[in-house]
Amino acid sequence: GAGVSQSPSNKVTEKGKDVELRCDPISGHTALYWYRQRLGQGLEFLIYFQGNSAPDKSGLPSDRFSAERTGESVSTLTIQRTQQEDSAVYLCASTSGGGSQYEQYFGPGTRLTVT
Amino acid sequence: GESVGLHLPTLSVQEGDNSIINCAYSNSASDYFIWYKQESGKGPQFIIDIRSNMDKRQGQRVTVLLNKTVKHLSLQIAATQPGDSAVYFCAENIGGGSYIPTFGRGTSLIVHP
Questions:
Q1: A77: how many CB neighbours lie within 10 A of its CB?
Q2: Considering only CA atoms, which of B9, B28, B13 is closest in space to residue B88?
């Protein structure tokens, strides 16, 4: 079936503006993750959703970052008052749970550029 | 292998050679490890995994070795092909109900035809 999709693929915004990034996980996947990847760097965990449980927000770098997910469907990551250091690729991943709960299926990412 | 600095560690090989990519993980309590491949402009893709009760696992052209004594993981790619050129990440999971992995910094593999 379809993989994880993210939109937009690219986003250029001015410093101080808000942006909203969208992730559509694989249907039936109970867990969803957001990561940030700066150029030439590894993946930095931001937030984790598991079903209807309270999300793990321990990776969000500041209160300008927030994310929502309704049930086991679409998630949005919102960055308010964007700063130049927010420029990065934002990756979303989902997992199926069960015996393969650790294997993550990633979307193609949204490349955010803050000018 | 790993190195300090701002630039991603890079491994350059010739097509047909075997490649070995290394990863030092941080948590001795980690019990599950995954290698991911990330091609340019794409998200990471699962390659192979290994649990802490194993020290070796083989897939198609890939082998993962785990040395828990020194907290070291390696990915071996046999007969490397140009299509293997990508950034490779290791990820560790501590289990016990925690499903948030820790990713390594990544190694860039460049395969020359």
A1: 24
A2: B9
Residues A42, B104: C-beta atoms closer than 8 Å: yes
Check CB contact under 8 Å for B32 and A102. Answer: yes
Q: Which amino acid is at B108?
A: S
Name A72's Cβ contacts closer than 8 Å, sequence gap at least 6: A25, A28, A29, A30, A51
Each residue's pLDDT tens digit in chain A (115 positions)? 589 999 999 999 999 999 999 999 999 898 999 999 998 888 999 999 988 888 999 999 999 999 999 888 899 999 999 999 999 999 999 998 655 567 889 999 999 999 9
Instruction: Provide the H-helix boundaries in A17-70.
Output: none
d(CA B57, CA B63): 6
The strand pair at B72-77 and B86-93 is best described as: unpaired
- The residue of chain B with its CA nearest to that of A41 is B105
Chain B residue closest in CA terms to A91: B43
Nearest partner of A109 among A8, A28, A1, A2, judged by Cα: A8
